[in-house]
């Protein structure tokens, strides 16, 4: 039973990632907006947009896992809005118009994970009904910036740079955040990035940035490396400035020609000066 429940949850995770926060719908029900991910104790907005210009609205309802928690019936002038309490979260009406209803979901627990469905029913005589739903995952722990390890304050030009980036907390279950490396604000080259595993037989726990320090030298000796952690619409970043010590090449050019023949320009100047002084004194 537990395995089946986990399998269903995984399927919903995938659907949440694919569908994002918006579900485009039919003629009456235009759009349903629900975040893919939220955090326990946090707050999110859910919205239901509809178009009933050709007919009137009989009712609009919100469901969580097929349990009604919000009802709006315009014809019930005494009490058009009814919000039912639940131990999983609190719902508050943020805005309501002729084309949409937006609710604020607060004080969420992990039990608030599930399917959020909006139902719109047109007025008599059709009582046409349309429903659409979006799955939202509520995580117990808030996101923290990713952790960068393996960095050094200074590199030599012949060094290999190898940094690791991973989430600060590894969820026991649920979705894994996506990690991306950037160099100077642009995505790092694919050959520099690879998955990192604590256990060779386990799933990746982070991403590695592996590149020659000479590349930083060519970029001026200093490059900003940034790791982006993303889960749904939530993003957090950590960065490290890669610095490579300049090569002491100024004196080398005085002793080595481009053809590889050894020369001594400083010594030649001294010898010429001595010869000139000797000739003048003679």
Automatic annotation (TrEMBL):
SUPFAM superfamilies: Immunoglobulin. Residues 1-23 form the signal peptide. Pfam families: V-set. Keywords: Signal. Residues 41-135 form the Ig-like domain. This is Ig-like domain-containing protein. The keyword Signal applies. It comes from the Eukaryota.
């Amino acid at each position: 039973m537990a395995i089946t429940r986990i399998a269903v949850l995984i399927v919903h995770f995938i659907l949440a990632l694919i569908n994002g926060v918006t579900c485009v719908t039919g003629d009456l029900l235009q759009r349903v907006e629900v975040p893919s991910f939220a955090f326990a104790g946090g707050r999110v907005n859910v919205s239901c947009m509809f178009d009933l210009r050709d007919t009137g609205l009989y009712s609009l309802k919100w469901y969580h896992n097929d349990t009604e928690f919000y009802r709006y019936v315009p014809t019930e002038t005494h009490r058009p809005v009814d919000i039912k309490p639940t131990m999983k979260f609190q719902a508050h009406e943020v805005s309501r118009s002729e084309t949409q209803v937006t609710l604020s979901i607060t004080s969420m627990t992990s039990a608030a994970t599930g399917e959020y469905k909006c139902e719109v029913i047109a007025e008599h005589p059709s009582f046409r009904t349309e429903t659409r739903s979006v799955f939202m995952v509520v995580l117990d722990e808030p996101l923290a910036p990713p952790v960068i390890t393996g960095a050094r304050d200074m590199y030599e030009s012949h060094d290999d740079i190898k940094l690791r980036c991973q989430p600060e907390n590894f969820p026991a279950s649920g979705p894994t955040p996506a990690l991306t490396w950037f160099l100077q604000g642009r995505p790092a080259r694919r050959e520099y990035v690879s998955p990192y595993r604590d256990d060779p037989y386990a799933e990746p726990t982070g991403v590695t940035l592996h590149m020659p320090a000479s590349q930083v030298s060519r970029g001026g000796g200093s490059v900003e490396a940034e790791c982006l952690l993303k889960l749904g619409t939530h993003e957090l970043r950590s960065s490290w400035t890669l610095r490579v010590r300049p090569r002491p090449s100024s004196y080398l050019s005085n002793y080595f020609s481009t053809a590889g023949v050894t020369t001594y320009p400083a010594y030649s100047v001294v010898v010429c000066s001595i010869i000139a002084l000797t000739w003048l004194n003679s």
